[in-house]
Design goal:
Helices cover about 85% and strands about 0% of the residues. It has helices at about 1-10, 10-15, 25-75.
Length: about 80
Amino acid sequence: MAKLEILVSELPTLIQSLKLTLGDSNQIMEQIILINNAQEQLRNINKLIAQELKFENIKSSAIATLPRITNSRKS
């Protein structure tokens, strides 16, 4: 979760760095690199969110199973 929070906190800086302008081919190439870097960071955030959701689903499933285990032992 800490990694996700760090990446999300960096989003404003990432967005700020994407102030795109029209210019010569060198400027356009530099902007393409910035866009690619932003896309990579967004992919990382997406992966971390998916991992967190998967973990939460597993945790919820395990917690939901606990009462059944506890009740079966009492019987």
